[in-house]
Amino acid sequence: MKKLLSIIILIFTVLITTGAGYMGTLPDIESEFSYLRKQSSEKAMAPFTIEELDKQNESELKQIPRDNEKYIDIIIKKDKTTQYLKDVNSVILILEKLRKCLNTNQDIQKFNAIVSNLIDNVEYIRIEYKDKPESNYLSYSRLIYVSQEAREAANFRTQGLNMQQYIPYTSEKNIYTKENLDKKLEALLNNVNETLFILKNLD
């Protein structure tokens, strides 16, 4: 009898532990947490495309106000002396005028006036800093070089204009041909561009 009772209890226990289970419905975890996945994917997406960012940056970039002395004093003053930066900045403005003059083929009077202004400013820098550390800067030697080349081009252009009434362009004795002048002006323009790059990178 005890043996039969033990068997019945065993069968009943097995039925409870194996045959029966949770009869309710499980929660829909997928829909419950879908908003978290959506928020995560929205955060991962960039708010702007690369093209939009480039356009935005380009529109926000402003040209350096080189005619503003406070900007030169405060913003771009680093290891170079403030006065040297001011003097170089003045020449940058003149070189930009000269570049525009060369690119637009302006008349000889305008060209010579700008070159004369350049020569005066560079000569001041040459004398002012010749015995100072600034004379070792690449910008210093480059200024002297571009000034000399501008002087030569201006002299060549002026002499060529004066010689027109005496020697025709086609004469073999005439070195002041349009072709030779164009070569000199093109070389000067290249030199001006290179010098501007060096001077502007003093910042």
Task: List key phrases describing it.
single chain; 203 residues; mainly alpha
Give the secondary structure arrangement, pairings included.
Elements: H1 2-19, H2 29-32, H3 34-44, H4 50-60, H5 69-74, H6 82-103, H7 108-129, H8 138-163, H9 178-200
Amino- and carboxy-terminal Cα gap: 106 Å
Shape: elongated
Largest sheet: none
β content, as a range?
under 5%
Helix content: over 70%
State mean pLDDT (0 to 100 scale): 75
Structural class: mainly alpha
Run of helices and strands: HHHHHHHHH
Based on CA atoms alone, the radius of gyration comes out at: 40 Å
Tell me how many strands there are. Answer: 0
Number of helical segments? 9
Uncertain segments are 40-51, 56-62, 75-79
Characterization of this structure:
The chain is an all-alpha fold and about 200 residues long. The protein has helices spanning about 1-20, 30, 35-45, 50-60, 70-75, 80-105, 110-130, 140-165, 180-200. The termini are far apart. Mean pLDDT is about 75; it is low at about 40-50, about 55-60 and about 75-80.
Brief account:
The protein is mostly helical and 203 residues long. Helices cover 70% and strands 0% of the residues.
